[in-house]
Amino acid sequence: QVQLVESGGGLVQTGGSLRLSCAASGRTFSTYAVGWFRQAPGKEREFVAAISWTSNSYYGDSAKGRFTISRDNDKKTVYLRMDSLKPEDAAVYYCAADRTSNVHYVGSAINEYDYWGQGTQVTVSS
User: Fold this and answer.
1) CA nearest 47: which of 5, 106, 105?
2) Residue percentage of the chain with pLDDT more than 90
3) Are strands 33-39 and 91-98 parallel, antiparallel or unpaired?
């Protein structure tokens, strides 16, 4: 079992930046890919970005060019740096771990992910 805890959310002005963290604990985190998803009120949960164990990364359209995902395997932590934030980026951001054995694999489908954190709120004021 893996536990994921997100942090770093908060209130930021349009154009500002935030760095979210996803800290993992528990049985094992080896080879897992980690993704970030977000969900705004009344909307479906959507893919933001993901990173493989070997740091292959993949971004959703909303994140390309503005967000950067990275990981520190020794610290069992994945980060999401968000720049040039817009009001439409406001949502609860969730990190999730994919229990894949392929160290290079990174996926974007919600149903690929096995463990989820509780989420952290990001609010962007206009």
Assistant:
1) 106
2) 87
3) antiparallel
Res 28: pLDDT: 67
CA distances in angstroms from 77 to 7, 25, 90, 94, 124, listed in the order given: 11, 9, 22, 14, 24
What share of the chain in percent tops pLDDT 70?
97
Residue-wise pLDDT tens digits, 14-51: 999 999 999 998 766 668 999 999 999 999 999 999 99
State how far the alpha carbon of 21 is from the alpha carbons of 42, 44, 76, 101, 126, in Å.
Answer: 25, 22, 10, 23, 24
Spatial CA neighbour of 18 closest among 71, 66, 88:
66
